[in-house]
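How a chain folds remains the central question behind the approach discussed here. In the encoding step, the backbone of a single protein was reduced to a row of integers, each denoting a local shape. We regard such an encoding as a compact summary of how the chain folds. The sequence in question and its structure tokens are set out directly beneath this paragraph:

___
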Amino acid sequence: MKRGISWVVVMILISSLLLAPGLFAQIKQDPKTKLDSIEGTVQSIDKAKMTMVVREKGTSNLDYTVIYSDKTIYTYRNDPAKAEDVKDGVRVVVLGTADGATKLNAARIDIRAK
């Protein structure tokens, strides 16, 4: 009986460690522009709602909702680009203003790799 309880406790601890990155989600601030930033891969785009989901670089479960507008500037490695260049699977750096722990209003989306 004690062995069964110990196994359950160990599994709960392991599960909580795997989920921990999501608990500490924090959008970083770009030192040059003083804008909030995230870097990751586009998981999905909803053109009707003008949102996209970006999975943070180096994680497998930390997603951010990026809200873009007609005023959002698009660049490809710091050169001018178009909104149509942003697609699922593309790596991006998003600069803007944080709206909570996992939302970002995008002022600029820089495409890093197509």
Observations:
- The domain at 26-113 is CATH 2.40.50.140 (OB fold (Dihydrolipoamide Acetyltransferase, E2P)).
- The longest strand covers residues 36-46.
- The beta strands are 28-29, 36-46, 51-56, 63-67, 73-76, 79-80, 91-98, 103-113.
